[in-house]
Amino acid sequence: MVERLRELWRYRELTRNLVMRDLRTRYKNSILGVAWSWLNPLMMMVVYTVVFNILAGRSGLPNYPVFLLSALLPWNLFATSVSQATNSFIEAAPLIKKVYFPREVLPLSIVLGNTINFLIALPVFFALTLILGGRITVWVVLLPMVLLVQLAFTTGVSLITSTLNVFYRDTRLIMDVLLMAWFFLTPIFYPITTVPEHYALWGVAFNPRIWLRRLNPMASIIASYQDILYWGVPTGWDFLLRTALTSLVILIVGYLIFLRYSPRFGEEV
Q1: Among 35, 162, 202, 236, which residue is least crowded by beta carbons within 10 Å?
Q2: Coil, helix or strand for 21?
Q3: Which domain holds residue 27?
Q4: pTM as predicted
Q5: In this structure, are residues 152 and 250 in contact, taking their beta carbons and an 8 Å threshold?
Q6: Is 57 helix (H, G, I), strand (E, B) or coil?
Q7: With contact defined as beta carbons under 8 Å apart, do 2 and 9 qualify?
Q8: Euclidean distance between CA atoms 210 and 190, whole angstroms
Q9: pLDDT above 70 covers what percent of the chain?
Q10: How many CA atoms lie within 13 A of 191 on its CB side?
Q11: Which is nearest to 169 in space by CA: 86, 93, 95, 96?
Q12: How many distinct structural domains can be found in the chain?
């Protein structure tokens, strides 16, 4: 694996070119261009604010649009990356069959491209926070650490789903459904504190809030973003460290799965 990582580093220029190509293609012939990196989450924020804050009566949270956007931005980074990366090997089939290069640069470049979009959108979030009377605290310095944990998890999941999709083309369709369900099982439009701490299922008592964060790494990641960006407090270190370990495991497992099956990509795509 170490030698493979060295090879990946030698092909870093290819990764950069793929990222730039993806960004240019995404905004090609678009009147607003890169402004869509700001407008897309803002429009989603408006829709969800109307639905969940006004119609559903969740007006108890101050600056609900800021709360919502602090979760939507990282969620879009994750969901868009996984969705696009899942089909990356299939879309690049002609290239894979003709030219040798580390195949992992394909999903990796997609994750990096969406990370750039996320970073472009952050200044708009900070501006909106100040306009609506929110505050940006010193704990924002923890943001790179949370982002790094998220990128490890996102890359690991992307490697798994993109590899599976080479052999089972239903993977892409299944992931569309799973990502939608995953969205509602992640505290994006509701604070994680609204999840009950005590619940009994078939006579067995358990803590849904704790298990949501343990079984859903994105729940801890999103909650960490909300802690830093919305509540202005340091994130829960126990959950963040546990999530960092989980993300690292997912990344390693995803890469091992990719390395195991990537030699057959040329035959299957």
Answers
A1: 202
A2: helix
A3: 2-268
A4: 0.88
A5: yes
A6: coil
A7: no
A8: 16
A9: 90
A10: 17
A11: 86
A12: 1
